Amino acid sequence: MKELDQVVVRFSGDSGDGMQLAGNIFSTVSATVGNSISTFPDYPADIRAPQGSLTGVSGFQVHIGAGQVFTPGDECDVLIAMNAAALKTQYKYAKKDATIIIDTDSFGARDLEKAQFATDDYLGEMGIDADRVISCPITQMVKDTLADSGMDNKAMLKCRNMFALGLVCWLFDRDLNLVANFLRDKFAKKPAIAEANIKVIQAGYDYGHNTHSNATNVRRIETKVKTPGRYMDITGNKATAYGFIAAAEKSGLKLYLGSYPITPATDVLHELSKHKSLGVTTVQCEDEIAGCASAVGASFAGALAVTSTSGPGICLKSEAMNLAVIMELPLVVLDVQRGGPATGLPTKSEQTDLLQALYGRNGESPMPVIAALTPTDCFYAAYDAAKMALEHMTPVVLLTDAYIANGSGAFKLPNLAEMDGINPPYVPEEMKGTWTPYMRAENGTRYWAVPGREGFQHILGGLEKDDKTGAISTAPENHDLMTRKRQAKIDNIQVPDLEVLGDKDDADLLIVGFGSTYGHLRAAMDELRAQGKKVAMTQFRYINPLPKNTAEVLTKYKKVVVAEQNMGQLAGYLRMKVDGFCPAQYNEVKGQPFKVNELVKAFNEIINK
Q1: Phi, psi at residue 606, to the nearest 5°?
Q2: Which residues in the chain show pLDDT less than 70?
Q3: 274 in helix, strand or coil?
């Protein structure tokens, strides 16, 4: 049996073929046994494209490693193509020597026509070596396996993904008991469905074993758990939801989410709606404006208030966000970024909302901005955003994006007791009778008087208020004073210094990014260093306020490149904030994650100039 350090597997088929589920099960089982994982679900933009069409192909890529992996991988070692369209569109993501698994029952004349093949020699047409292909009549074998199940033809065909999963489990020596446990839990209310899928998985596993599929046979990725603990495979959206729940628990507050469904943020609403027993209230509002405005009301009432959306929804929420700025109320605004502008690419990922998060409101409206780095970091980023909002009485924008929100990683369950406390600045009881709404603590944060406390009745609103009395004021000097105090409050927030990785003392190139590109930039740095180059990197998690050592880090190195999935928003922001900073830029706006090999090539060119 061959041992591997890492492998990349890509499941692909029609959007109704269950590729996301098959990939999710495979990644979950791998995380359970201690492998490091990184996943990338690649959804079609069509709600329901015609079956077998090129635009309707759904993919799920998972990178599994014995040690730490940072990306879902540029290209896959194994490609599962459940129909002709999947092979046509997804083969470009496969390595030259990749193993290809196909369902030959889905490569008929009509299937090839819809996939726009010119001949029936589809392998030759694409230049694929037939010796690398495991050709299996998956559809017929599933029907044979379930012939005595009593299921109708449509129900049986829904199990095809499990046959492919079983075959992949054989290829990588996965324990089918773990898969069976997953399915029995998922289909706890439909045990017959669970058992049918388990039977099909076993059939796929047995097919691989009995035919000795693929010349290399079984390959194993050894488990190397570096930190003991309880682990789970978790998506970024679910981790974000759990982070908000943890923050509410730690602060002793009820959690309120006011939201309107939008891809790719809706899963946070779905997940939080399951946890009423933990004091979570979710409201699916009539529109984005109501989602944010209701959260502002919940904040005034004393809850940990959150509103979630994607880029187009931030446009609509901006007025209510500004209301929270001038009222100085805690609020977390979750922006799961997607391709824009307008409706743009709803299922694809970009980092194009950064300047909107920083400046997309009227007036001087400073707001902290945090960007999560990985799917598992979404938990801690959500917790930190809630802590910052509550302790500094301000709305906070939390940026994730479709890549890390839908992607997943192996998550070590944290001990809540060991996490930093959350201490909102409640107005002290001894201030009764002298307190006014905009009185501040030493760090400039407004005191929080939750309604219901006798002697602390007050009114907040969208009109400028007098610093001393809290009454409406149009005085020029007062407005200037309040504007500066709101800005100073944000500037005074303490965030961790930038961490520099790699050759931090003598690098010839510093790679700079923010948020979800962390894994790809880290992998590119590691590859460049393996080539003998002196390279360092730093990744911004806190964007407003910037870490105190930002200028020191960015001006230390001979060459700096800022890499981001937009046209240069972070680079422009840093040029504005750091005198004399003139970096090189690497920009892509493709709706897809970076490719490490392309990053390495581009960074090498910068080093060699």
Answers
A1: -65, -40
A2: 1-2, 47, 212-226
A3: coil
